[in-house]
Amino acid sequence: MRANRTRSSGEAKVQRRELLKSAAVLAAGSAAAPMLHALAASMPAVDAHIHLFDPTRPGGVPWPPKTDAVLCHPALPARYAPLAQPHGVVGAIAVECSPWLIDNFWLLDAVEQNPILLGFIGDLEPAAPDFAATLDRLHRSPLFLGIRYGNLWNRDLGAAVQSPEFLSGLKLLADAGLVLETANPDPALIAAVVQVSDRVPDLRVVLDHLPHANLPADPSARAAYDVNLRELSHRPKIYVKGSEIVQRIDGQVVLDAARYKAALDRLWDLFGEDRIFFGSDWPNSDALAPYAETFSVAHHYIATRSLSAQQKYFRKNSTAVYKWKSRTPAQAHLLAS
Question: Can you say whether the dihedral through the CA atoms of 289, 257, 209, 88 is positive or negative?
Answer without folding.
Answer: positive
